[in-house]
Amino acid sequence: MIRAILFDFYGVWLPDIFANYLAEAQQQGFEVSDELQKTVNRYYHGLAGVEEVAGAFRFKLNRPDIDVQQFVLNENSIAPAIVDFMRGLHAHFVKLGVLANLGRQELDLLNNFNQHNQLFEVVSGPLALNLDKPLLDNEVFAQTLQNIGEPPQNCVVVTGSQEYQNFAAGLGMTVLPFAGFPKLKQDLDQMLASEVS
Asked: 4-14+76-196 sits in which CATH class?
């Protein structure tokens, strides 16, 4: 029985603000790519700010056009249609949460957003849990599931990341690959309707 839905953040709620620059870094070789990935990982653990990440991309990619404002998020970044979509899911009496790599900016944004909209039972990830672990770690998932109060088999994960999908499936969670909100709505409506019948 589906009792909870956990959403990735980047790639579902918003396009990944770092993905294009990390892809560009891969074209410049392992050393540049590895260093920038480490900077982004530090960001997701609350050890680097968005200014440091923007500066690292600007310097390592030799891109003076990269500005910190490209990485700044606010509640206006989240489309009202997403809020309506999430509210519609509450009609099915399922718990909603975010389980994602979240830097301080994303965590604050979602917590403030949740105060105004009261959509999520949990906003989670390594930084939110104060864990020095990657997102795809058994302890991160175990604590999140404990916080939402459901076992893995009662949870659906929505993400566009193949690695995330594989990890969650390996824990016994149902996985829905994200391919846009119209498709997600159709898939979730079918899944939740089959629970009732």
From this structure: alpha beta
